[in-house]
Write a structure and sequence with these properties.
The protein is α/β, with parallel strands linked by helices. It is built from ten helices and ten strands. Strands 1, 2, 3, 4, 5, 6, 7, 8, 9 and 10 form a ten-stranded mixed sheet that branches. Helix 9 runs antiparallel to helix 10. The longest helix has 24 residues. The radius of gyration is 18 Å and the shape is globular. It starts with a strand and ends with a helix. The mean pLDDT is 93.
Amino acid sequence: MITVFTPTYNRENTLRRLYKSLKNQTVKNFEWIVVDDGSTDGTERLIKEFIDDDEIPIFYKKIKNGGKMRAINVGVALASKELFFIVDSDDYLNERAMETIEEETITLPNDYAGVVFRKVEVFDDGKSVRENETFGGAQIDSTPIDIFYNKKILGDKAEIVKTSIMREYPFPEIENEKFVPEGYIWNQIGENYMFRYIDKGIYFYQYLEDGYTRRFSEIIKNNPKGLKLYYKYMLKKKIPIKNKIKFLIRFFQAVYYDWKKERKG
């Protein structure tokens, strides 16, 4: 029923925690696809150990380093299950995650894109957690732009999307760049499909020092075309003026860094 997809790059130190959370799931209605984005650590050896355990179905593919978005496109192409669930290599799930997804998708209307759950932040000690703000009820039928900009539910979210719909909306692959915000795809999907937001936390995450969120200035410098694409798209949406101003500033930042990059050659 579910493809759990993990793009990874040099995360040998956190993958074991994710694997443990997967093999301890209360239901085993899933496959785990790992696309290794050119890791130079012991990731390949570790995943082969997991495969040899024969606890859950695991499919591993190593590709040339090209960034998370290219890896997602590869994962979507490999997926054989109905639903596609991106779980990053430094995150993990609670033991009832697959069971909960199964329960909540039984009544999902056929024309919906998928379901969305809350993420739960884990602090540095690995034990203390902070629940992201609730969705305001048991469930809300909405879209990514509406939920964020109108309903003001801002916390990190875990999207489980129909694989067939993910194939309709591949991530742009830009030469010499490795990043486009995931919101670019979720928001496009939301233009044509509804999501069901479920007020349950099933996904645990921790902000790492070398994660995307903490490296934004570096990311915009190295991926200006991808960021330009995203900000130009968002500036056309009906969102609050303060957000448009922020996106406009960042759009011109991306334009500047793109110019510098092109000039550098």
